[in-house]
Amino acid sequence: MEDKLKTLGEAASLIASGSSISIGGFTSQRHPTALLRKLIKDGVRDLIIYCHSAGSDVDLLIGAGSVKRVEGAYQADGVFTPISPNWRRFVEAGRIHFEDYSNASMMARFAAGAMGLPFMPVKSMLGSDLMERWGFSSEERKVDPEAAPAKVHKMECPFTGQQLALVPAIKTDFCLLHVQKASPQGLLRIEGQEFLDVQQAMASRCVIATCEEVVKDEELRRNPELNRIPHFAVDAVVHLPFGAHPHSVHNAYDYDPEHLMEFSRASKDDASFDRYLERYVFGPDSHEEYLELIGGEARMRALRARSGLGYNPELARRGGDR
Amino acid sequence: MEDKLKTLGEAASLIASGSSISIGGFTSQRHPTALLRKLIKDGVRDLIIYCHSAGSDVDLLIGAGSVKRVEGAYQADGVFTPISPNWRRFVEAGRIHFEDYSNASMMARFAAGAMGLPFMPVKSMLGSDLMERWGFSSEERKVDPEAAPAKVHKMECPFTGQQLALVPAIKTDFCLLHVQKASPQGLLRIEGQEFLDVQQAMASRCVIATCEEVVKDEELRRNPELNRIPHFAVDAVVHLPFGAHPHSVHNAYDYDPEHLMEFSRASKDDASFDRYLERYVFGPDSHEEYLELIGGEARMRALRARSGLGYNPELARRGGDR
Amino acid sequence: MRAASTTELMAVAAAREIADGEIVFAGTGLPMLGAMLAQRTHAPNMTLLFEAGAIDPRMLHLPMSVGDSRTLVGVAQAAGLFEVFNYILQSGRVEVGFLGGAQIDRYGNINSTAVGDYHHPDVRFPGSGGSADVATLSGRTVIMAPHERRRLPERVDYLTSPGWLEGGESRVRAGILTGGPSALVTTMGVIRYREASHEPYLDSFHPGTTPEAVREETGFPLDISDSTETLAPAPEELEILRRVVDPEGIFIKP
Amino acid sequence: MRAASTTELMAVAAAREIADGEIVFAGTGLPMLGAMLAQRTHAPNMTLLFEAGAIDPRMLHLPMSVGDSRTLVGVAQAAGLFEVFNYILQSGRVEVGFLGGAQIDRYGNINSTAVGDYHHPDVRFPGSGGSADVATLSGRTVIMAPHERRRLPERVDYLTSPGWLEGGESRVRAGILTGGPSALVTTMGVIRYREASHEPYLDSFHPGTTPEAVREETGFPLDISDSTETLAPAPEELEILRRVVDPEGIFIKP
Q1: Contacts of B251 in chain D (CB under 8 A)
Q2: Which of A76, A276, B26, B49 has the most neighbouring CB atoms within 10 Å?
Q3: Which pTM does this prediction carry?
Q4: Considering CB atoms only, which of B52, B133, B251 is closest to D158?
C-alpha cells in the first residue's frame, strides 16, 4: 500500500487559495493548528470554511485574513474566549461572509456529504431565525458555484405529515485533521471524542491528517474497533507531535491557557494581531522552532496529559485572571 | 445506577405475542438465539419482525409459527443454507406476510428510527421492483397501526433535482441482542463488526441484551471508545454464555456447521421441523440443558475461538458434505 | 461560612432543576457547575451528556468547554456529535437541556447570534452551537442568564433557539412537537412560564432583591404576584460547589 | 496439474475483473474466491469490503458469509452496515461490486427475490440483501451465475437489482446516475454490454464449449460475433486458489 507520509510543507502545498475546507476538532480541542499556521505562512487566502463548533483554529485563519466565507454554528474557545475575537471583529466590520446553522444541522450537512446524499432531514431549525435569515441571498447563490442553491428547505413528511428542515450536503475540497495515531498508509485512530471528524473526512475530496504518532499499519489493525477513518479516504499523513498546540489532544497534552489568553488579547485589533502572527506564524521557520518559541520542553512538560486521565490535572487554567 | 441483570425467563417474559421486534447479528453471527428459543417455548406468537440480513435466527421463529410478518432484505445462512428453508417454505405456501427492501434501505429505516426522524433518503431502490412491488397494499396499511403508511416515497431533491427514495423509519417494541460484554447497568460492548446492532437498539423502545460476559461498569468505562450502546438505552441484561449457539460470536466461538446443517435438513417440512423444535427448543429445561444436548463441554471446546483470530481455524466446516 | 455569591446561587438553582435519574444535556459554563453539583447531591443517577461526544461522565475537574478532555473521566462512551445529536437528542431521550444566551425574550426565545442587523450586527456572538438543537429537542429547557433589562427584551433581535415563540400554541404550530423552556434562572431570580399561555412569571427572587426590582430590570411584562424568595443554598451545597466542583475557581471566585 | 473446474474458471475470471488499487465490494460465495485470488496475485493493493462491517481484510480463511469472523483478520476497521453502506458505498467510493442472482436478464438486471408471482411465488429466494444497493451504487458490477437458459431470461420475474434496466439510457432516466453491469461471468463464458445500447454480447466462451452452445443456453438474444475463448487460468492462479484461498474445499471440490 501507498506510503502517504509527507512533510508539513508538502502537505500544506496541496491546498490552494480559494479552496473549501473543514477542520477537525471542537472549540479548543484537537485542531491541526500547526498546519493552519503553515497555510497562513504560505499565503493561502480566500478559504471557504465549513465548521460546526470552531474555536481559535478558524479564528486564527480569520484574523490572518485567509478566510472569505464561514458556514458554521459556533465560534468560541470555551471559557477562554466566549466569543472568538477575530470572528466578532471581522463580522461586525463586514469583512467576511458568513451563514449560521446549528451544530446539529451542520452535523447533518457533513453527514449527508459523507453518506453521498444531497441533503439530510433534521428536526432542528424549525421556528428559528436559522431557518428564516440567510447569510447569502438566492441571487448570490446563483453566481457562486460553491454555495448550496438554498440554505434550507422546509418539508412536510410524506409519511407522518410532520414538519422537517432539509439541509444541503457539504462536500469540501479538503478536510484537515489532527489525530493521535496514524499509519503511513493513512489509517487513522482517534482517542477520546471523535467530535465530527469521521463525517467531515468522509465528506471531503482530500483528507490531510497531522498526528502525534505514526504507528505501523499492522499495529493499528490489531484493534480494528478503535480505528475511525479508513486509509483509502486519507491522502496525506504528517508526523507532527504537539501539532495541535495551543489546543488539547486527549491522552497527549492539554490546551495552553496562557497561549489561548495571549491569542485572545492579541485579537483586539489588526495591528496587535499582526504582531501575534509575526511572532508565532511568520517568525518560526519550522514547527520545531515554534515549539521552542512557546516554551520548548518545559512548556510541553507542563501541558503533558497524565496517563489514565487524558489531560493534566495540575495545569494552571486561570490564565484569564493573570 | 439500576441493576438490570435478569434471568433468561424474566427477560423473555417481557415480550408479549404480537410485539414488533428486531434481532441483532447478521446471517449466522451473534444472534440472541437462546432467547429466541425461550420465546418459542413460552408460546410467544404473531411477532412482527424487522430485519436486514437475517439467518436461522428469524428462520427458527418462522418455522416455529411465531411470526406474523417480516419486513427485511435477506434470509440465508451463507453457504450453509443459501435460502433460509422455513422462510422459503412459509412464503411459498402463503403462511406469513412479508415486504422486501434492500439491506441499505433497511439500514436507513433503522437509522431513521434511531435518529428520531420519520424517514431517511436513500439512493438505493430506484429502478427496482423493491420500489414498485409492495408487500402490503395501501388499504392493508390503513387498518394496520404497525405498518408504515407507505412502503417508500419517490422524491426529487429540492437542492439538486436528483431522484431519491424516502424509506419510513422503524421503531420496534423490542430489540434483542447478543453481545460479548455487558455491565449489569446495561452498558454494551461489541467486538468485531457491529452489524446494525447500534441502530437497531436505538430504534427500539426496549432493548434486551444477552451476553457472553458480565463486566463491571467501571471496567467497561476504562475504554469508552469501545462501548457501543449506552446503559440508559438498555432495559435488561442476561448473562448467557454460548447464548448465540448455533451462531458465532467473534472472539468467543464459531458457528456450529453440524447444527446449522441439521437445522437446514429439519426445515424441509412441518413434521420434521416440529421434531427439531421438540428436541432443541421444548426438550431442554434450561440453556444449560440445551448446551449439554448439543454436545456439552466437548462441543463447546470444538467451537471455541482462537485468541487473536476470533474464530476457530481448525473447525470442520464442510458440514454440508457429511 | 461565606454567604453564597450570585454565581453560586445560580449554580444551586440550576442543580435543583434536575431530578434524579434524568438525562441532562449541558453547555459550557454555569450549567456544568449545576450538573456536577446535582450529580454530587440529590441526583446521583442522572446521566450527563455533552454534544462533543462525552456520554455520562463522572468528572473530577470542571471542563472549560463541552469538548474538554475533562468530560471523559469515567465516561460510558466517548462518541461524537453524530451519536449524541442523532441517537440521543433528536430521538427524544434528553429530559432537560441547559442553555445560556445573550438575549432572552418574553417567551424564553434565545439569541446567541447577533444584536442589531444580522448581516451588519452591532455585536456578534458565537452563534447557536448546539443551543437551537437542545432548545428544540429536549423534553424541557432551563435557561441561565445575567439579569439586565437590555438582555431581557420583549423580542430577541435574532431568534437562535426557539422557546415558546409567541406564546400559546405557536411552538407546536411551528412544527416543534415537544419541549419548551421550563425556567429562566437569572442573577436576580427564577422565571417560569404559565401552562397554556406560556406567559412568564416570577417564581422566586434571590435573597437581597425584591420582586419589584426584578420586574424593573426586565424588558418584558413580568407577573410577580406568585413569587417567593429563592431558597438559599444549603451549606453542604456550597461546600460541594466550592471544594469539589470548582476548587480551581474557574467560575466561582473566592 | 488437474485441469481447471468450472468453479475455478469462474473464480479466476472474477479475479481478473479487479484492477490493482480498486475498492471492491464482494458478496458471499464465488466473489470471495475471486477477490481473495486477486489480492494474492495481480491486485495486492485492492481494498475489499463486506457489508456486514469488515473494511479491507487480509483474510487467512475463506468466510462462509460476509458476516463471518474470518473477514476480520488484519482488517483496517471493524465497523457495521451503517458505515459501509453510507460512507463507502452510497458515497460513491466502491469501484467494482460482485453480485450473484437466481435470474439475470438481457440487460443484466438481477432477480434474487422470487420466481413467479411476488406474493405467491413458485420459488422464493433470500431477497436482495445488499445486492440492489451494490448494483445501484458501485462504479461497475460483475455478476456471477450458472449458465442455464431458464436462469437467463429476456426479463426477470422480479427486478431486485438494477442492471441496464431496458438498455440505452433507461438506467439514468430511472435516476441512477452511475454504475451498471460490466460483465456477467457464467459457467459457460463472459458476457459484456455494448457501450450506448447496453446490449449484451459474448466476450469469451470457456474452454470446452462453443459460442453457439452458449447462445443456445441463453434466454435472450446474444451477439456472439466478437467472442474468443476464455483465457485459461495460469497454473499459479490455480495453485493459489486451491492451496491458499480454499484449501478446506468450501467451494472448490477436489
Answers
A1: 69
A2: B26
A3: 0.98
A4: B133
